[in-house]
Amino acid sequence: MNSMTGYGRAVAQADGREMTVEVRAVNHRFLDLSLRLPRALNFLESDVRALVGETLRRGHADITLTYRNTRQDARKVQADTALASNYLEALRKLAKKTGVKDDIKVSQLAALPDIVTVLEQEEDQDAVRALMAKALEEALKQVAAMRQTEGKNLQGDLKTILSRVDVRINLMESTAMDMPQKAKERIENRLKELEVQGADESRIAQEAALLADRCAVDEELARLRSHVAQLRQMFDESGDIGRRMDFLVQELNREVNTIASKSQDSALTAIAVELKSDIEKLREQIQNVE
Questions:
Q1: pTM surpassing 0.85?
Q2: Which residues pair with 119 in a beta bridge?
């Protein structure tokens, strides 16, 4: 069992290039990826999504790529000679007209707007792609390791809650066993209140049996135990089990609601309320199971 919460960060370097990848993952109903990368690296988006999809099955993941290229050929300095000539001509005319000494130097000319520009050279996509894959794979390993650790913690919490669920199901069963006798006692007490004399005992027993049958929760209790057993079996499974666990928790809640609607006993109703509280805690924890 894995959690959907995880974090990983890795740096890969090669031949004057450096790629940093950071992955933050939290719970989500489906696999939802949010990528942040430099515009020049947009060509990596499909590769990133494919690599992440091989590791993560569910969850929202924020993936950030940071890139540096310190190679000598990474940038090209370019001078606009035509613009420089126009600047120079205009400045000389200004010097002649104002009588100011013409002492223009190349360094001064180069400092004028748009004379010298730095251009980013086109990246070697294959080299950058390989660097990204190396960093991303390492970051995803860290995410997977954290998810596994978080999953073990989740499993411990779920086992504790399911143990309480077992206790309450047993209490429900023992309480439900007394329902036929309690049904008979209610009928007898009602007859006494109405001062009915000489009531047919067989008729009272028949009515009590009918009432008890309408209140029977044996099938619901059996399904509750089955759902709990299936949840426990999933603890040792890998992969995308969160959706199936969530479905079983919904079924647990449905069975408890049915028992509560059938209940003619305040003790049984009280146990159902406590069980619903435990099931809600199960549901909250399972939201983070992958």
A1: no
A2: 76
Q: Which of 94, 34, 88 is nearest to 61 (CA)?
A: 34
How confident is the model over 48-76, as pLDDT tens digits?
A: 999 999 999 889 999 999 998 877 776 77
Query: Rounded to an integer, what distance in angstroms lies between the CA atom of residue 240 and that of residue 4?
Result: 10
Measure the CA–CA gap between 255 and 257, rounded to whole angstroms. 5
Q: Are strands 59-69 and 6-14 parallel, antiparallel or unpaired?
A: unpaired
DSSP 111-165: TSTTSEEEEEPPP-HHHHHHHHHHHHHHHHHHHHHHHHHHHHHHHHHHHHHHHHH
Task: Pull the structure tokens for residue 173.
Answer: 């069963």
Task: For residue 69, list its beta bridge partners.
Answer: 17
Tell me the CATH number of domain 6-70+124-146, given options 2.30.30.100, 2.60.40.1930, 3.40.190.10, 3.30.230.10.
3.30.230.10
User: What burial class does residue 1 get, using C-beta atoms within 10 Å of its C-beta: 0-12 exposed, 13-18 middle, 19+ buried?
Assistant: buried
